[in-house]
Amino acid sequence: MVIGGGGEGKRKGFIRLAMQAGADVIPVFAFGQSQTYKWLRPGPPFVSDAFVKALSRRIGMAPLLLLGRWGTPIPHPARLTVAVGAPMSLPRHDSPPEELVQQHLDRYIAELSALFERHKAAAGYKDLELRIL
């Protein structure tokens, strides 16, 4: 699974699934991935911000049009640096309580943030700030 996008700090399903399956989760961050596509976000003057926000809430993500090479889904060439953290073992639990899921999500976010900070300068992004929404 690849976690990301708006609201990732609230998405706990991957932690719950990993716990139910007895699987590890591995923090991974790809530096440069935002260079692979251009994007267009609908908004004024064509559509109101209120409409865009309502649609975002309804579909659970920001409505974006991603454009790759020649306007296709093929990504633009970009230098990617992928940082891979250590596997995080999670306890197996068929029906994990919400507070346990949140505890392991917080741990995952802390590991991902530390991974980002350790590798951002070497990847060419020393001034980049990670924001998990």
UniProtKB/TrEMBL annotation:
Belongs to the diacylglycerol acyltransferase family. Keywords: Acyltransferase, Endoplasmic reticulum, Lipid biosynthesis, Lipid metabolism, Membrane, Transferase, Transmembrane, Transmembrane helix. It comes from the Eukaryota. This is Uncharacterized protein. GO terms for cellular component: endoplasmic reticulum membrane. It is a multi-pass membrane protein. GO terms for biological process: triglyceride biosynthetic process. It comes from Monoraphidium neglectum. Coiled coil: none annotated. GO terms for molecular function: diacylglycerol O-acyltransferase activity. It is found in: Endoplasmic reticulum membrane. It holds the Pfam family DAGAT.
